[in-house]
Design the sequence.
């Protein structure tokens, strides 16, 4: 109980930590650095899914359970993505023709809902018999949240929202993970046989985010080679941490 609370808090807080640089920036972030950050986060999440979540789910169940949970995780993210208007963070004028305040609300709502399955991933991982898995998943989600928080805060500042207010809003978008992680933990702890489904669900949700959002966005501005190397570095970072722990 205590471990999952601390892990989810750190993971959620990473969104706000990642947004802190917005207080000191005088110029916007370059496409190149943004792509590097996104690709690195994609590598971290891919490694967490393939090297930790999926083997752990298979170890507690079978291929059928893994397939069902993974596809359900991807399906939930697909439904969310289809029903939440997408606002291009770098080119907000290409989004829906709505006022600035409404655009800001849309991106805040999108990121908040996007964080729901991430919180569940952390909670389910702490319910696993592997005592280190929860910390690893919380860490990987936290690393993914940091650039996400920065990008959200940057978007809000570009919409004439104060820097401190943008930092606070970005932090709050990650706070929902604390609640959903506790839900995932309690469900997995008290419902027999749910843990492998939850682990597979977490893997499916994370891989959907990687393939649908992080990789395309990191390869859209001509920085494919740099982003690919950053992805591999993120992959190796997570594998190294797993071996070290």
Sequence:
């Amino acid at each position: 109980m205590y471990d999952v609370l601390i892990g989810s808090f750190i993971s959620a807080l990473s969104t706000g930590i990642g947004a802190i640089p917005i207080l000191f920036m005088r110029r916007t972030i370059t496409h190149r650095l943004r792509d590097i950050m996104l690709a690195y986060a994609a590598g971290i999440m891919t490694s967490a899914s393939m090297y930790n979540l999926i083997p752990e789910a298979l170890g507690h169940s079978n291929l059928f359970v893994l397939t069902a949970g993974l596809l359900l995780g991807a399906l939930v993210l697909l439904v969310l993505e289809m029903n939440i208007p997408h606002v291009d963070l770098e080119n907000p004028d290409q989004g829906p023709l709505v006022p600035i305040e409404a655009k800001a609300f849309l991106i805040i709502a999108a990121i908040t809902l996007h964080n729901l399955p991430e919180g569940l991933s952390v909670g389910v991982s702490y319910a696993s018999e592997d005592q280190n898995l929860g910390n690893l998943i919380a860490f990987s989600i936290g690393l993914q949240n940091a650039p996400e928080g920065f990008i959200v805060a940057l978007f809000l500042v570009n919409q004439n929202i104060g820097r401190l207010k943008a930092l606070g809003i970005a932090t709050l978008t990650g706070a929902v993970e604390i609640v959903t992680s506790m839900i995932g933990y309690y469900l997995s702890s008290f419902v027999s046989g749910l843990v492998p489904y939850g682990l597979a669900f977490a893997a499916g949700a994370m891989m959907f985010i990687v393939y649908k959002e992080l990789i395309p966005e990191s390869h859209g501005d001509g920085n494919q080679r740099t982003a690919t190397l950053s992805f591999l570095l993120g992959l190796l970072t997570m594998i190294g941490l797993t071996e070290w722990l």
In short: The chain is about 80% helix and 0% strand. The CA atoms of residues 218 and 224 lie 7 Å apart. Helices lie at 2-19, 31-60, 63-83, 100-126, 133-158, 163-190, 194-218, 224-244. The longest helix spans residues 31-60.
